[in-house]
Amino acid sequence: MRKRWFSLAAAGVLVAATLVPAAPAMAAPTFKVPFPCGQSWSGQTRSDHSPAYAVDFNRTDDLGDAVVASAPGTVDRVTDLGGTSYGKYVRIDHGGGYTTYYAHLNGFNVSVGQSVGYGKVIGWVGSTGGSTGPHLHYEQRLNGNDIQVRFNGTLALYWGTKTYTSNNNCSSGTGSGTVNTAGSPLTVRSGPGTGYSSVGTVADGAKVTIQCQTSGTTVTGTYGTSSIWDRIGSGRFIADAYVYTGYDGYIPNVPRC
Ligand SMILES: [Zn+2]
């Protein structure tokens, strides 16, 4: 009996060690490129960067461009270090020990304690602190330690420069726009072109939901010349040249018809 009792005890210890791992690590949040949906930015990593795994982001004329939260979380720092280091920076706590840093900002759009979701504008690209030109310095950390950056679970390029296109907070399949004709109602056509029959109008200033976009006849409107047509209902199309969508060309994440 004694011998058997010992072996059961040993088995029990083994089971306990197997089933109760110490402090299980939380899965990393799905981090997104820290810019609005559809934007492409050049991200550079350098082995002499401090900290090493930070990414510096640039694009043409980027001063003042919006910087957005790369994952949901709570803002826990909105700090201005003046002319040194990060300058104006924001830190977001994503839980599980994960934080992200957004540095050299021109200004802030959030405050400490604020909850943010994907795509929330937290500030604007600047050149504050120890920066020699406008860019976003971006970091992911785990328990305070600089970690290699991942977007949508994919490791960033180390070391070098790569273009990253944001899918941060992209709407799920529909877009929106505002009709701007500077006065008269806009003709709705049964297909994507001026040769299709008129099936009604939408008022100047009306908001429209865009189900999909396609190429049709070229139209010159309030926003220039474009061959893009927006489907706003079944058998209902309007010329995108008269619609403010926030994008030149096709709206990211809105399907082609
Ligand atoms: Zn940097």
Instruction: Sum up the overall morphology in one term.
Output: elongated
Q: What class do helices, strands and sheet pairing give?
A: mainly beta
Percent helix range: under 10%
- Briefly note the CATH topology name of the largest domain: Glucose Permease (Domain IIA)
Q: How many structural domains does the protein architecture include?
A: 2
C-alpha-based Rg, rounded: 25 Å
**CATH homologous superfamily grouping of the largest domain:** Glucose Permease (Domain IIA)
Point out poorly predicted stretches: 1-21
The SSE order reads: HEEEEEEEEEEEEEEEEEEEEEE
Bound molecules: zinc ion
Number of helices: 1
Describe the structure.
The strands form six sheets. Strands 1, 2, 4, 5, 6, 8, 10, 11 and 14 form a nine-stranded antiparallel beta sheet that branches. Strands 3-9-7 form a three-stranded antiparallel beta sheet, with no helix packed on it. It contains one helix and 22 strands. The protein folds into two domains: 40-165, Distorted Sandwich (Glucose Permease (Domain IIA)); 175-244, Roll (SH3 type barrels). It has one helix at 2-19, and strands at 40-45, 55-58, 66-68, 73-80, 88-95, 98-103, 105-108, 115-116, 121-125, 136-142, 145-147, 150-151, 154-155, 160-165, 175-179, 186-189, 198-202, 207-210, 212-221, 224-233, 236-239, 243-244. A hairpin with a 2-residue loop joins strand 12 and strand 13. The protein has 257 residues and is mainly β. 7% of the residues lie in helices and 43% in strands. The termini are far apart. Bound molecules: zinc ion (ZN).
